[in-house]
Amino acid sequence: MIPAIPDSGPFLLAGARLLAGHCPFRGEPVDRDGFVLVDLLIDGERFAAVAPAGTAAHPDVRRVDLAGRIALETFVDAHTHLDKAHIWRRTHNPTGDFWGALDAVTRDREAHWTAQDVAARMDFCLRTAYAHGSAAIRTHIDSVGPQTRISWPVLAEARERWKGRIALQAAPLFKIESALDAAHMGHVEAMLDAYGTGVLGAVTYMVPELGDGLAVLFALAERKGWDLDFHVDESADPEARSLRVIADMALARRFPGRILAGHCCSLSVQDEDEHKRAIEAAARANVSVVSLPMCNLFLQDRHAGRTPRWRGVTALHELSDAGVEVMIASDNVRDPFYAYGDLDMLEVWREGVRILHLDYPFARWAPVVREAPARAMGLALDGVRAGAPADLVLTDARDFTQLFARPHADRIVLRAGKRAPPPPDYAELEALGTVP
Ligand SMILES: O=c1cc[nH]c(=O)[nH]1
């Protein structure tokens, strides 16, 4: 059990196991998993000192002996859908596949997504993510028909309310064909101007309008100085090749912003030539890729009466080896696209390790839940160093297999030196009317 943490500082967390890459000093012994042992002095909201274990003796300060337990930095979740979350009991996915999800969400959105409904579910999500240790989140916002004008003000209000605790970004979500509809794009542009976070996006797949639709989005993003974030080739069809189309367009236009491509599932079922060409193009165009391992495992290769043979995830190792910035994220939570999940990046990491083999060595992949998504989102993170906010996720694990063997529901999330509240109770969802 993790020892009790004082309610107020100053206090010393002695003998914490911190990833060497997160440690502000060098020269201390690094263990087989890539951790160093450190002492962390916390005073008020900030770290007052970070020192090699055993060297920060403060006789007047309360000492908590972590005895080699792992202390992680907070997480960054670059791809979520806070506007859809927790609608499962109201509208489930009868087939469990992608098309069943799309149809169910459309029905639920048209019937229920008032500002109040979206705001309540979004706030539940943010409290959950905060409790699990996330400090930054990007959500996609379904921007279709009248929903566009309902959801964006809600997002802006949540963003303001969570400022300083969770950095919240958002990208609009609509089919790429809709980029050719001037009225639709007028609404999207107006909402992003008023309430957006400088990120434009859409869902891309192999429709005849793909090139023209992308050109509209690239041109708008260039004019506004926005980044781009796409849902790309979320499919088992090897002919789904929009990742390369996006990368080629970025190169041709010398796009100056950041581009994040989510899913890219079909990349891992393409023939060797196409697979290589797409990866090379993504690397040259500086397109980052976020894999959504839990949602892909749920939706992809699902056929009634047949056991799945494919994990559904993109070629993350090959992308990383080619120099593409790669990361993993939560994606959907208890909605028709994914029936489970809890905006818990430690769960995403644990499942990512298993589904995508993000181990051997574990530490090489640790940036996929923090540094890589932060770069893709353009965020500057405070690390563990004297003067920085005392933000940590304390666990009972002492090595990576202990970290990934258990869910660590007993973790202690420290934000600005104080223990974060636990995740909200599901009973709240009943009271919010999100459950029939
Ligand atoms: O919400 C969505 C939309 C598209 N694809 C997903 O995985 N989730």
Please write the string of helix (H) and strand (E) elements: EEEEEEHHEHEHEHEHEHEHHEHHHEHEEH
Shape: globular
Describe the main β-sheet briefly.
5 strands, parallel
Instruction: Tell me the count of domains.
Output: 2
| Fraction in beta strands | 15-25%
CATH H-level homologous superfamily name of the largest domain:
Metal-dependent hydrolases
| Strand order in the sheet with the most strands | 9-10-11-12-13
Bound molecules: uracil
Could you say what the CATH architecture of the largest domain is?
Alpha-Beta Barrel
| Structural class category | alpha/beta
Rg value: 22 Å
Please count the helical segments. Answer: 14
Distance between the termini: 38 Å
CATH T-level topology of the largest domain: TIM Barrel
What's the CATH C level of the largest domain? Alpha Beta
What's the average pLDDT? Answer: 97
> How many beta-strand elements?
16
* Low-pLDDT ranges: none
Proportion of residues in helical segments: 25-40%
Can you summarize this structure?
This protein is α/β, with parallel strands linked by helices. The chain folds into two domains: 11-73 and 382-419, Urease, subunit C, domain 1; 75-377, Metal-dependent hydrolases (TIM Barrel, Alpha-Beta Barrel), CATH 3.20.20.
How would you portray this structure in words?
Helix 6 links the parallel strand 10 and strand 11 (259-263). The chain contains 14 helices and 16 strands. The strands form four sheets. A five-stranded parallel β-sheet has the order 9-10-11-12-13, with helices on both faces. It has a four-stranded mixed β-sheet with strand order 3-2-1-4, with no helix packed on it. The chain has a four-stranded antiparallel β-sheet with strand order 5-14-15-16, with helices on one face. It folds into two domains: 11-73 and 382-419, Urease, subunit C, domain 1; 75-377, TIM Barrel (Alpha-Beta Barrel), CATH 3.20.20. The two termini are 38 Å apart. Helices cover 34% and strands 20% of the residues. The chain has 436 residues and is α/β, with parallel strands linked by helices. The radius of gyration is 22 Å and the shape is globular. The chain has helices at 98-112, 115-132, 147-162, 182-195, 210-224, 242-253, 272-284, 293-299, 316-321, 345-356, 362-365, 371-377, 400-405, 427-431, and strands at 11-19, 35-43, 46-52, 62-65, 71-72, 75-80, 134-142, 167-173, 199-204, 227-232, 259-263, 287-291, 326-328, 392-394, 412-415, 418-419. Helix 3 runs parallel beside helix 4 (182-195). The model has no long low-confidence stretch (mean pLDDT 97). Uracil (URA) binds at residues 81, 84, 231, 234, 295, 331-332, 337.
